[in-house]
Amino acid sequence: MSVITSPRATKEGPAKAPRPEYKVTGRRVLRSEWSKLWSLRSTWITLALGLLFMVGFGLIAAARYKSTVTSGRQMDPDFADATALTLSLFGVSLAQLALGVLGVLVTAGEYSTGMIRSTLAAVPRRLPVLWSKATAYGVVALVVGVIGAFVTFVIGSGIVSGTPAALSLSDSGVVRSLLGAGLYLGLVGVIGVALGSLLRSVAGGISVLVGALMLVPGLITLLPSAWQNNIEPYLPSVAGGSMYAVNQAPNTLSAGAGLAVFLGWTVLVLASKPSTKNVYLLY
Fold it and tell me: pTM of the prediction?
């Protein structure tokens, strides 16, 4: 004869059924970070700004070039060798700031608000959280960059049609360059995420990002030419620019070498381990 057992009652009342155990997996952490990313209003606003910078400044550059050609005025030296591709990617330097800053906010913002406590309580290990944030936001920045590059080129090439700068998607290297620009912006976003996690400060992460991408290349020009030619090609922004350049300038890397160097910088920042002190310190 079988006996049916039931949970024993206690003084506080009938025994409660045990709650199910939830295992922390990479897929669940990634899904959580994806939801948090899109729950922030700053995500939508900053992505829209990045896309606006990419498309807006590219079309302005194309319209200015077409106006100069049709009016017969002397061409600005900066546009002398311009093509529909270089004009369309004119806004990459500003789009990288928007996407990179948002990457910093994705991680450092949690330290400033204290939300990181809840995150690390659910996922005690830092690396799965960082990898999930970098993957989720990196994919978003990549998609925004690729869409912005192709949309700007399609419209911009129509503006400069009939001029010496005219190009089409079927021309050699154009599609590769547009994809390279999108990949560059995606990796900039990943670097922003890593800097935010490393420094745990919004202001510090943005300062390092802007300095590395925009200020350091300008300071390198103060060095002797021999030093400059040996150092400058390996700077993050210069190596990244090689990824989407059709015609490589002298003393610059090829597209493949530029990708390898920029990936190296990305991995270096991701692999950097912050101090274990003051994990919950709020800036």
Answer: 0.85
